[in-house]
Amino acid sequence: MIKFCLAFWFFIALVSSEKFRFDNYSLYNVLPKNENEIKLLQELAHNDIEYDFWTEPGPSAEFVNIMASPSQKYNLETLLNLHGIDYKVTIKNIQEIIDKETVKPYTRNSRFMTWDSYYTLRDIENWMSDMAKAHSSIVTEIVGGVSYERRPIKGLKISHGTGRQVIFIESGIHSREWITMATTCYIINELLTSNDEETKAAARDFDWYIFPVTNPDGYVWTHTEDRLWRKNRRPQRGDIGVDLNRNWNNNWLVIGASANPSSNNFAGIGPFSEPETRTLSEYIRSIDNIEMYLTFHSAGQILLIPFGNTTEPLANYHDALNIGRRAMGALSVRYGTQYTSGNIAEAIYHASGSSMDWVKEVLHVPLAYCYEFRDRGQFGHLLPPDQILPNSQEVMDSLIELIHQGKRFGYFNNSDVVKASMLSTSCLVIVLKCFM
Length: 436
Ligand SMILES: [Zn+2]
Prior knowledge:
Blueprint: H1 2-15, E1 26-31, H2 35-47, E2 52-53, E3 64-68, H3 70-82, E4 86-91, H4 94-100, H5 121-134, E5 139-146, E6 152-158, E7 166-171, H6 178-193, H7 197-205, E8 207-211, H8 216-224, E9 235-236, E10 239-240, H9 275-285, E11 290-298, E12 302-305, H10 317-335, E13 340-343, H11 344-347, H12 355-361, E14 367-373, H13 388-408, H14 416-435
Parallel strand pairs: 7-8, 7-11, 11-14, 12-13
Antiparallel strand pairs: 1-3, 1-4, 2-3, 5-6, 6-8, 9-10, 12-14
Helix pairs in contact: 6-7, 6-13, 10-13
Bound molecules: zinc ion.
Zinc ion binds at residues 174, 177, 297.
């Protein structure tokens, strides 16, 4: 009888499980004025994993976003007031903002995504599939790996011919950063349908490997159970999930990552312990000729370059920063959005085990950038849908400028495409000379 009751209770609990609600959870925009205040916030982030830090209290952090539950708010405000740390509450009731987020259904075969709404994993995959069919001469559906729950990590390859250098885009590794998936779909759409000459040239001159959702289990979870889930969904010593951007085999767990499975920055039980990072890294390794690697995150309006474990200007630091800063200039033109730039450790915080550092150090990819998209603390991971289009447009502007500036600094210049066009130019010169 007892067994039957337990089974019945379990069944009821299972069918009645609902999406987690964030009623009266608040988002704090904390504004540290000096090193001491930053140190205090760092200790809080480190010692009290109950608080959800949406941005890290790095040494040069202008603001730090902290989400607090109704029961945590009093303690957090008391602590901040006690130490005279300035803050404002930018979202009073997080659930209200979540309720306003639109998730539209995608109509199969329409090939039409609107840029004022977010989409589910299935709809993003269906849309990619339809785009691949509609542009079958240049687009291939690709699978970059597999998740813990056996979902394929799907993407698109856009290629106008052989011998081109590769631009690789990895997006959505942190599942709650919905703006990253949306903007990545916009970039795919632009590369396939834009009439802008520079965008068309960018699509034509490179092989593009684009993965909008590299943490598919986490992304599904954010739609069905917990909108603010960040990690993957693999059970870990009584807890769930690994921060997939701390799990790459490069200075793994050295700094800025946690060994505690309850932490949002849990690095896993070893480098590449997770199926997502292991399979995706193998896939990336199999691609020759990656000239630029881009990884998309939110929020903070920051462009990051390697590395996260040191502020030393290693490798082509100065080139990468110069190119990146110019691209952020282009990004600001359309809407005035300002990004800061720097290596991970100097711009935000020491963090190791990220995908960008791995591709830079292990694969020696010439240019590697990590975007932290809009905004600067007002909505954080809950960027309202009316900012999807402006965010996407300005990022696309910056991407074109990254290529343009990269060429000026001597990158993107040894592809067969360039060689072929140089060859045809020299042939033309020879022909002309023969007729002169
Ligand atoms: Zn992220």
